[in-house]
Amino acid sequence: MPPQQAGHRRRYRRRPIRNHTPQTKRNKQGLNLFQFSLANRMESGSVCRMKPSPPHWSVSPALQLWSVRNEMNTDARSTLHAIAAMGYRRVELAGFGNLATPGEVRDAVESAGLTLLATHVPIEFLRSKPDGVLEDTLALGTSRVVCPILPAASFQTLESCREAGREMDGIGAQLRAGGVQLSYHVHGRDEFKLLDGEFALDRMLAECAPGHVELEIDVLWVAHAGISPGDYIRRMGATLIHIKDMTPEGKSTDLGTGILDLPDILGAIGETHAAEDVIIEQEHFTRPPMETAERNLRAFQELISRKTV
User: Is 185 helix (H, G, I), strand (E, B) or coil?
Assistant: First the structure.
């Protein structure tokens, strides 16, 4: 890989935001800030206008295992087999459950007939033991690592964003040299603070060379920031996407029962060709998590079957 060039700014696939009816009871100021930030980029010529691409739905969604964390902690092997029986073919890891080693996790995943899409690793381990993270990731049988969140302090000033970006870039470069891709999970809290007309997250990513740090967009957290998830996906073109639904109070809920515009979100995923990297996740429940996971898969399949874009 070529070294990062001085002054390099990270480029994502970006499109102008389109006019739309608000899809949530979101903070209108947040949407205006998004438009303002994007307008600045358009004026400066940093927005790439791309023609839409046809959607494709050739691969079923993965399940983020945080959705069934208690079950994984009790009996990971049985849980994985049950997930496969629902019709899932891929999973994303968030801890080893009651298994002890990467080898045990890989064996359990593969024995269930599943594929591991990615694994979440806290920033503390990425900072202190990048070689160990690389070794464990490959032993798990995947080539993707996701940093789930950075401290809020990383996004408070321009300099803190630059420092966080340089750190993530270094970690991403080290992992990529060993055959592993690093992504950052968008939480929509401090990442969307405006700093000189740009989101703090954009300022952080500007310090990262191409391919060193990709995005995992979580549609609920983007909506929490007052931004249309569909428009944000069209702008950024993420490689991994957590799809959820949200109650008016801002909690995750069963797909198709909340206030997010899921058809628009799925349309955006198809247009950016990120459909192979859709991951179902839910944190709050009105019924048992395993039942919810199966219902969400069926709801997702129903949404896809109704798509006409």
Answer: strand
CA torsion, ordered 226, 213, 6, 151, to nearest 10 deg: 60
Stated pTM of the model = 0.81
Look up residue 15 and give its amino acid.
Answer: R
Asked whether residue 1 is domain-assigned, the answer is: no
What confidence tens digit (pLDDT) does each residue in 174-230 have? 999 999 999 999 987 799 999 999 999 999 999 999 999 999 999 999 999 999 999
What is the CB neighbour count within 10 angstroms for residue 11?
Answer: 12
Residue type, 20: H
CB neighbours of 174 closer than 8 A, spacing ≥ 6? 130, 131, 134
Is there a contact between 243 and 279 (Cβ–Cβ < 8 Å)?
Answer: yes
In whole angstroms, what is the distance from residue 287 CA to residue 282 CA? 12
Helix (H) or strand (E) holding 123: helix 123-128
Q: Are strands 278-280 and 240-243 parallel, antiparallel or unpaired?
A: parallel
Can you give the CATH number for the domain in which 294 is found?
Answer: 3.20.20.150
Provide the residue count of the chain: 309
Over range 279-290, report the average pLDDT. 96
* Total tally of structural domains belonging to the chain: 1
Residue 275's pLDDT is 57
Per-residue confidence (pLDDT) for residue 9, from 0 to 100: 37
Q: Quick check: is 51 in a domain?
A: yes
For the stretch 167-183, pLDDT in tens is 999 999 999 999 999 99
**C-alpha–C-alpha distance, residues 141 and 107, integer Å:** 9
